Amino acid sequence: MSGPSRGPGARLQALAAALAGRPLFWILAVAILFAWPIVRAIQAERALPHKRPAVGRVRDFVLTDQNGDRFGAGELRGRVWVASFTAIRCAPMCAQTSRMMTKASEIQHRTRNMGDAFRLVTLTADPERDTPARMTDYSTAYRASRRTWRFVSGPPDQVRSLLEDFRVAERTPQTRFVLVDPAMQIRGFYDLADDEALNLLLRDIGLLINRGG
Question: Can you say how many angstroms the Cα of residue 76 is from the centroid of all Cα atoms in its chain?
């Protein structure tokens, strides 16, 4: 006469007990435990947009940076870069301007390991008053790297033409930063008045550099 049949719970317990006694089971369990975060990270990366479409293009230009050197498209082509816009005579928006320069400083700090692949460019939105000499003083106040963070000014008519490419009104400090790819195509606008926008911008900088555009 056969004994009473065991329910599903009992059978599962018996199977678990049998597996627990096998070293191969534990090796597989540990491997899965460590592999899972990697798999999730790969899935998250694949879920990101492979390419942000170009939404504009930056014209060729040559202006002057805070070092007193000629600076323009030739320095930036082939690199990922971010443009920000400031006006030294900022009233009544000086508090906002200061916050944006602090954000730019954070971008400089958080991209320091990207080497020669990245540049940060702060362009005057008030070319009549923000001469290259004044931009030099401004860059010193924010501890801008002479190599990676350029403060740019120049002849007002040339600066105005460049501001048009970025859709920036003259004499208007901006909370919006612009991401540009190595082909001088605009790939995104980021309003850094929104705290989440900074992380999104940094993510997209990394994607452009790592994926080559």
Answer: 16
Query: How is residue 91 written in tokens?
Result: 């009233």
User: For the whole model, what pTM was predicted?
Assistant: 0.74
Cβ atoms of 122 and 104 within 8 Å: the answer is yes
* 2-49 pLDDT per residue, tens: 455 556 666 656 666 665 676 665 565 555 655 444 444 344 444 444
Instruction: Say if CB 97 and CB 85 are below 8 A apart.
Output: no
Rounded distance between C-alpha atoms, residue 158 and residue 111, angstroms: 29
Q: Which of 97, 70, 60, 58 is nearest to 154 (CA)?
A: 70
Give the C-alpha separation, 196 to 39, whole Å: 25
